[in-house]
């Protein structure tokens, strides 16, 4: 198929204007008035648009300032919250360290308490032994006194019995105290 070429006949400017105005040829003064009206309309529209944009710009600037103020407030609050959080972390670490220290101290005191309990039990055992010894010695002393009284034939003085009794009590108390302190 062969390329189709179209040729249009050039149309003059006067013909275009005539067709726009419904077949009448406009006069130049009408074209000037129409041009001035278009320019005035453009200027008035531009002024109203600028005034509307000015109000919108003011509103936009005000909204931006409010947003910046709110952002700064939130940043300050975030900084304060972070500082409080840091302080709480430090306190928690201190509390944890204190708990560890107190736990170790409690374990030490428990061990010390067990040792003291064992020592108390040992001392109670020794006291029981000493009481038994004291009772045995007292019994032995009574027997000796009865023997002594019997051998003296009832003539013996009670002051020598009291002296022996006092001496025995002194010896036994000294032995008991020495055992307790050792």
Automatic annotation (TrEMBL):
Write out the coiled-coil annotation as residue ranges: 113-147
Keyword Magnesium set for record? no
| Gene3D superfamilies (UniProt xref) | 1.20.5.1700
Which Gene Ontology molecular-function terms are recorded? metalloendopeptidase inhibitor activity
Per the record, the domain of life is: Eukaryota
Q: Which GO terms describe its cellular component?
A: cell surface; Golgi apparatus
Q: Which UniProt keywords apply?
A: Coiled coil, Membrane, Transmembrane, Transmembrane helix
Q: Name one Pfam family in it.
A: BST2
Give the GO terms filed under biological process for this record: defense response to virus; innate immune response
Family matches, as InterPro entries: BST2 (IPR024886)
Give the transmembrane ranges.
28-52
Q: This protein is called what? A: BST-2
What is the originating organism of this protein? Answer: Rhinolophus macrotis
